Records
---
Amino acid sequence: MTELERKQERAPVPSDWTYAPAPEARDVVTLREQYGHFVGGEWLEPKETYTTISPATEEPLAEVGQATPEEVAAAVDAARSAYENGWSEIAPSERAKYLFRIARILQERSREFAVLESLNGGKPIKESRDVDLPLSAAHFFYYAGWADKLEYAFPNQRPRPLGVAGQIIPWNFPLLMLAWKIAPALAAGNTVVLKPAETTPLSALLFCDVLRQAELPPGVVNIVTGDGRTGAEIVKSDGVDKVAFTGSTDVGKAIQRELAGSGKKLTLELGGKAANIIFDDAALDQAVEGIINGIYFNQGHVCCAGSRLLVQESIYEPVVDKLKRRLTTLRVGDPLDKNTDVGAINSKQQLEKIQQLVASGAEEGAEIYQPPCRLPEKGYWFAPTVFTNVAQSYRIAQEEIFGPVLSILTFRTPEEAVEKANNTPYGLSAGVWTEKGSRILWMAERLRAGVVWANTYNRFDPSSPFGGYRESGFGREGGRHGLEPYLRLT
Ligand code: NDP
């Protein structure tokens, strides 16, 4: 036996491969005790407030304003006044400069924003750091580029701004949804009143600091916080010319009813129940990564999540085996730990909705699998979940769960895959995994979805339009298409 072999024999064999904690420093973020509404470039003292918390610990983070109708009206007035007194008239190349500045400041302050986003929303820091922040900055860069080229984007037409845009965003990607909304609105020459979701207002409030740093003229962007009542006030305000909403299908429908006949422009980005379709010739290990990314990214709080897995029958067993094995390696826990893959559920209310739908799946006869994992005692948590033996009629195959829950179905032929994929009231996104290019095109033509990913999933780029149809809404965000809802074209 050599010396080296003797040493190796004496060395303890590691038996525990768990990762050491790698917490991101929290002190990069300074929270105020109370935040007001950002109106006309100033902080307006709120009349009413509520407490925003960290969903991972239930720890209170700050007091935030619950905007009253008068406060919403003040924000709309400020936006109107900024629109009429300068913003709609300044040279488009000047508008572009502000957007470039905002993009660069977001990049400079990205760590601070990423930590805050994970703290207030529960998403893993590696996602807010590597996805939400870079994409948010990229949206501002992208639309900065269009601001002085609108007549090239829409040749032979005269693009003009609409006026004041009322924008209502959800809690799953708070800063990114803000960027998707504000960047094209400003590039097109509009002013904005935006409401973040009740549970995740803090990154939008920190963004007001960026606006000041960029010296954006007062009133061009106004942020009011509060619950659905604040959103409803924005929608019905006479001073708003266009409403952009991302959220649930029910609220989207209510907004559409409210605006019918008003002449206001509307875009709705609503829910989904996407099919992620795996053919037997697909590269299975990559496909399994795509399935994981499709449904467990951001705890499944993703409108385009691949929440229905359609697997070709001949490869059902290897796919399910590989998937279950991969599931055991997902690390669920502290969103601020850099090793965490699956963070906290955004709110108690959302956790209850997930629990209720999961219970219905088990009751209806599906088989549930959850990997062994210890969930933290405080906060809102749900283990990554897979359902097999799912019938198309089950609620878990029809309704948007908006959580880390995957329903697996099978198919035999491409025709059957299309039929099953389209068998929901939604039409937002889909994924196709196959070696055959011709099959990708054949499927993409037949899938009723606004976005179809091939051999990948959850890929976003500011230059690529995103949006759905049927119960997933209408209108597009991103790309040249994303400018159109903010313009009057004559
Ligand atoms: P909502 O549709 O209620 O929330 C989206 C945004 O709209 C929030 O800012 C919300 O405020 C606001 N809002 C609520 N009611 C009104 C109203 N009557 N008029 C105007 N604005 C309003 O979604 P939830 O947060 O309640 O989530 C419920 C379900 O919706 C989820 O389980 C999920 O299935 C789906 N969802 C889909 C999203 C998507 O991207 N497609 C995003 C979020 C949710 P507040 O935050 O105070 O409720």
---
Amino acid sequence: MPQPIPATLIPGDGIGPEIMEATLAALQALGAPFQWETQIAGLEGVKTAGDPLPADTLKSIRRTRLALKGPLETPSGGGYRSSNVRLREEFQLYANLRPARTIIPGGRFDKIDLVVVRENLEGLYIGHEHYIKIDDDPHAVAMATGVNTRQGSRRLLEFAFEHAVATGRKKVAIVHKANIMKALTGIFLETGLELYERKYKGKFALETVIIDACAMKLVLNPWQFDVLVTTNLFGDILSDLVAGLVGGLGMTPGGNIGTDAAIFEAVHGSAPDIAGKGIANPIALLLAAAMMLDHVHLPHMATRLRTAIDQTVNLDQVRTGDLGGTAKTADFTRALVKRISNG
Ligand code: NAD
């Protein structure tokens, strides 16, 4: 029997509690040893504790250093700051790991198996922006500062390279725009090349690709890539692009990993339009739970979970509405748990 692993559970807003219920049922069927501390955040946090990221939730993650999180609602424009961004900063979650793998064969892009590793804390997303007023136009000039550091680049690149080695990947592409942003993305490229020469040469092949060419190549022939590692803004865009190659955000998990904690989540939002109807697809959160199992060194359970998802969708043909099926979340969960229990 594996040791109990304390972990924070944030069901989240909208469809969050519905897909979390499905995920917990699957983890229980697997015998996953997580010892959950249930906490609130997002809109639920505002309603119950007057804070989208209550102190108790932060305290719990500080203690467990591990969390599974449902989607959190963030108002656009005004309102409170995204709890997701705050969590990233608070726990220095510098690496965003976004695997994209085909689950339902026969789509426009078949047999996709890619990983995007995105720098999560630096670059153009640090929020140093301002306007300059000229005459009577207060927004005459808009400015943003991007910051990439040697140390920040190195730890992210090292994370990506270690991940490639640990998962037997053959090729890593460093994606950049060092031909134009020579300093801001040049430092990332230069650090990656230096690190590869010093520590990883021969362990996998390394290539460098300019972001715009990379986007085109991913659409023309995504199979030429394996692991893509890049800075914050490019990674944000590319990780959604590769999610699109495997059927959209509903099938895509994400891991935010740092020195102080690791938080796993579905990439999609709280889907307020279908919340409470019992029709949400729990696959993205289930795949996030599989990443979490890999993270705590229980890869056999992660594989069992991924295999059971494949079997439920493809052999049993049990699919929710977004995948063209008629199953409700509870039907899918029942079929999945049966697959896990029989597997
Ligand atoms: P969304 O991902 O919630 O929904 C987009 C569309 O996809 C909707 O039609 C929705 O019904 C559908 N959808 C999403 N997940 C689904 C699932 N599992 N099964 C079936 N259908 C699904 O995006 P949005 O509407 O732009 O955002 C809603 C809220 O979620 C916003 O407040 C936003 O800030 C938040 N959000 C949170 C996260 C996060 O916590 N990681 C990510 C994105 C958006």
---
Amino acid sequence: MRKTIVAGNWKMNGTSESIRALLDGITAGVPVVDGLVTLVCPPAVYLSQVKEQLGNAPVVVGAQNVSAQPKGAFTGEWSLEMLQDLGCEYVILGHSERRSLFKETDADVADKVDATLTAGLTPILCVGETLAQREAGETLAVVATQIDAVVQRIGIERFASVVIAYEPVWAIGTGLTATPEQAQEVHAAIRAQLTGSGMKVADKLSILYGGSMNAGNAAELLAQQDIDGGLIGGASLKADEFLTICAAAAESRK
Ligand code: PEP
């Protein structure tokens, strides 16, 4: 059975005090279920604090981005070695905010996925279409192109260690959510694409949905056959809401 992953992307939010309180709330109620991974991705400057506070709690830590460069004169960046040093296990890559605001290209994202796998961390590769692309009927082609750029770079064998997050850009932070049917269609298409590219274990790949997932819509989304968890922004900043999503994810494994 595939892993179910509930990942909180805290983006650029919080202070040491509010993050401590949020994490206290999450660790107080996080479900422990075989095959369910609960992940938090704080701002990089709070990774150490979060890791230390977690201790042995059943929550893993990830970063929201990383440099593909190993070290050197890259002011403002951080490396995979640093993330390893801090005990990070996952890295979100190619988030639509990185692609649109920081101009990351498919090639940049592929470099980062490659470097992350080489370092032994798990990349969460974000893909998704804009509203204009959806309305033009280009959703599956756009997502396929974003994924293929990474497949071409790393090879299909190594793709088995990647997690995908399908995040329609129009649903991120907007309160709009893909319907379960819309999301399921794209998730199934991604799995079929990877099988078509020669991946023997596409049925084992975790594909998360992201885009205004919340306590009210999580259960229905997570019940879809090809949806293996969520990448959650806004709703991950409230412990009770995040825990409701975690509980729905635990339920979806039964
Ligand atoms: C995200 O940032 O990946 C995300 C899905 O945000 P939100 O849940 O707020 O739409």
---
Amino acid sequence: MRTPFIVGNWKMFTTPAEAADLAADVSRRLNGILGIEVALAVPYTSLAAVGPTLRGTGIELGAQDLHWEDQGPYTGAISHAMLEALGCRYVLVGHSERREHFGETDHQVNLKVRAAIRGGLRPILCAGEKEGDRNAGRTRAVLRRQIDRALEGIPAGSLGHVTVAYEPVWAVGTGRAASPGDAADAHQTIRRQLERIFSREASRSVRVLYGGSVTPDNVQGFSGEPEVDGVLVGGASLKASDFVRIVQGGWARRPIVG
Ligand code: PGA
């Protein structure tokens, strides 16, 4: 059984006070929704403020990145243990903005997935093709490569703790979402690759989310695709009413799929 999963990614927005207010607003509006899991990936500096706000609401706390070592001389970096201590359950890994602006490689993404699992966190692994790859017909090849490399050395037994977010780079923050059909096609590629590396059973335990310009107006297209287990929402997660409309307008209406 895969429980639908909606994740907000607040990126580099909100001070701790703003973040606590936004989290309180989201949880008030959602008011204990059933059958769907919701998580908020907030800036590091807001984790301590948002954690207590979310406690007991059923909404999970997430971070947007982590370092791959347990500790060490890595000025400015944050370890899995630091996130865990602040109550994080989820952590984004390999977001396209990290790959693009911070030069994160597939190898580093793999080390981060391993570190997250080692530390008891649940990684949300982001993968997606750039526009040039798509135009050149390389979408599937890129996805297969990213999945292969990111999950190298991960035991099949840990796969159930991994979520994959398909985020075509050209759709992130651009207002140009993928079509639900294209997303479903990419999700199938991802799931088949998981099946190839692990097993059919293990691959079916992994939730695959779509991300990239999801809004309250287009979410139903994605929730209508059985391959899409939820969404990763950036811009629209910064407004509580929009984010809650996405949660309520999508999977809340759909029975949980197995
Ligand atoms: P967007 O971002 O919804 O603003 O396109 C998605 C993401 O970065 O996860």
